[in-house]
Specification:
mainly alpha
């Protein structure tokens, strides 16, 4: 595995395209007041090379050179409104969507997306979509349908104390410690 020095790693800056454009315009405004590049970079919390790149883009293309650019990558298959609708459907539960059990699986969500939105997702990518909607993976606790929690508590209190080989240790009250 190879590692790169920190200064060589290029990451997308934080913020919306409009916020990033405002930051670039602010840098040009400061540069036009004869503030040095390193001071502008420190004030905006960016690298000096970024400020120089923005200055060069502004010189070549004017304000259009600093404009907000759309995010790179493939556009999402579901619109923001469809993702919100999907989140509401997931919250209502699989039984409301027509499934017999109350357990969402990636395959079930793929089927629901295909039926409701006519969009095809691979089951392996649904997790990413659900995380973007604010969900996290959960594992159901296996419980027998016949389980009776009240009877279990009663059994523990009455019979387990008799079956147990060692007597329960008596704890001292907090003030006696």
């Amino acid at each position: 595995m190879s590692y790169y020095p920190l200064w060589e790693v290029r990451m997308r800056p934080q913020g919306s395209p409009a916020e990033l454009e405002r930051r670039r315009l602010r840098a040009i405004e400061l540069l036009q007041r004869n503030i040095p590049v390193h001071a502008v970079a420190d004030r905006l919390g960016v690298d000096r090379r970024s400020v120089r790149r923005w200055k060069r883009a502004y010189r070549w293309r004017g304000r259009a050179g600093l404009g907000a650019r759309p995010a790179a990558g493939r556009p999402p298959k579901l619109t923001a409104a469809q993702r919100r609708h999907l989140a509401r459907l997931v919250v209502t539960g699989p039984e409301a969507a027509g499934y017999r059990t109350n357990l969402w699986t990636c395959r079930r969500i793929v089927e629901m997306i295909r039926a409701r939105f006519d969009v095809v997702y691979h089951p392996d990518h649904v997790g990413r979509l659900l995380r973007a909607c604010g969900f996290s993976p959960q594992r159901p606790q296996p419980r027998a349908k016949e389980r009776n929690d009240r009877r279990i508590r009663e059994w523990r209190q009455r019979e387990w104390a008799q079956v147990k080989k060692t007597p329960p240790t008596r704890r001292l009250p907090d003030r006696a410690r």
